[in-house]
Specification:
Distance between the termini: 51 Å
Number of strands: 8
Shape: globular
Number of domains: 2
Number of helices: 12
Length: 278
Amino acid sequence: MTTVGLISPGAMGASVGAAAAHTGTTVVWASTGRSLSTRERARESGLQDCGTLQNLVATCEIILSVCPPHNAPDVADEVAAFGFSGIYLDANAIAPDVTREIGSTMTRRGARFVDGGIIGGPAWKAESGTQLYLSGKDAWVIADIFEDSNLHTSVISEHIGAASALKMTFAAYTKGSTALLSAILAVAEKEGVRAHLERQWGDEFTRITHQRVTTNTAKAWRFEGEMREIAATFSGAGLPGDFHEAAAQIFADLSKFKDRDETPGIEEVIAALLKPSS
């Protein structure tokens, strides 16, 4: 039976690991240096602890990397340094050029590489519709792991970078426009015209905007890095990346809400943008 290693069981990663384990695949993770909450999440997801990353590399034929975007290159380097020769899936929100660099590193050191892009929230339920897009010559091997699981898969190309490009362009609008709406509300508040703007928007659009802006504050710390990867994606295509660099700053200013138990109100969110913490 195939043994799959997961890096790492955060909110999204744990659901990916659980989806693989649900199909009967043995899924392991490395607990060394991880928090108590991460350990508990991994246990509840049905993942087996193998202790260290070195043990994980030695044990697994396939490794799934689901981590914050800024960690993706270092994680891949560390896995490669332990001599991994199986299939490495990078399913992180990173620019296609970064994905190709990681893929080159992995294949040069003897591994096989698959590019992945996750669209949607954590895949705890099939009806959530979370989609893992895959590209690369070994993409079907990864797709087979999740057959009939809560995580839906689609192989879209043999070319490394395609899945990452799809993820980046999709999030460029969905998350980028959330940052734009957040900034618009803050500017309107600063200029004393927010009530008039929201009247022009209408009640339904205003309600949806407030909900969208406030509920995404809990993930703003993660979106910051993703926006910078999207900016790099645009720059790599010869287009300006400045808009998403600005979106990254908006999310950075909202990252203070990361560990809040309750969703902040719109007034508090606007205040955080107008008077960002140092």
